[in-house]
Description:
- The protein is an alpha/beta fold and 227 residues long.
- 28% of the residues lie in helices and 27% in strands.
- The protein has 2 domains: 135 residues, Rossmann fold (3-Layer(aba) Sandwich), CATH 3.40.50; 69 residues, ACT domain (Alpha-Beta Plaits, 2-Layer Sandwich).
- The strands form 4 sheets. The chain has a 7-stranded mixed beta sheet with strand order 3-2-1-4-7-15-16, sandwiched between helices. Strands 9-12-8-13 form a 4-stranded antiparallel beta sheet. The chain has a 3-stranded antiparallel beta sheet with strand order 5-6-14, with no helix packed on it.
- α2 links the parallel β1 and β2.
Amino acid sequence: xxxxxxxxxxxxxxxxxxxxxxxxxxxxxxxxxxxxxxxxxxxxxxxxxxxxxxxxxxxxxxxxxxxxxxxxxxxxxxxxxxxxxxxxxxxxxxxxxxxxxxxxxxxxxxxxxxxxxxxxxxxxxxxxxxxxxxxxxxxxxxxxxxxxxxxxxxxxxxxxxxxxxxxxxxxxxxxxxxxxxxxxxxxxxxxxxxxxxxxxxxxxxxxxxxxxxxxxxxxxxxxxxxx
Length: 227
């Protein structure tokens, strides 16, 4: 059985190799991104000079804890490189993200980044998106309407719950998780979801990712987007 935690750490180590002094680095959210943040903290302690922006309050807090200089993204227009995880990713570098509930901020920071590197363990690569439930971030005012509109797409949305109450993102929005099982046409689905008023963002990352670092056992594969 694969040691997924060891694979996450290995992928993070490889991705962090791309970070150089003077860079502004985007910090992802989730269990895999934690390894990258901690490794960056170790390198900062050894003399690496960077600034960072975080995609969630949790990542911001961890980055400060390990000694990084973290800026508010409100004051940032461009990021040199962002390192983040994914819930699943295809060979064509399309992905589903948002399992950690930070998909809106993750997509904004990715859009502002010159380079986006996704780090994953061997359980995350897939041939077709949809095995992982697709997250939608929805404003509370529109939650019932959005559930009804999404049901017209042939899926039963589930309000994400944590500790017995609806989960709230850092923007105080709700998350709907959509169990599609398989998404035959992600571009078409993305357009349909974008057209639903009340949907703030969806977890389909179709054009944002520049490279994936995939750890399998003790081996690391790097896939770069074909230009």
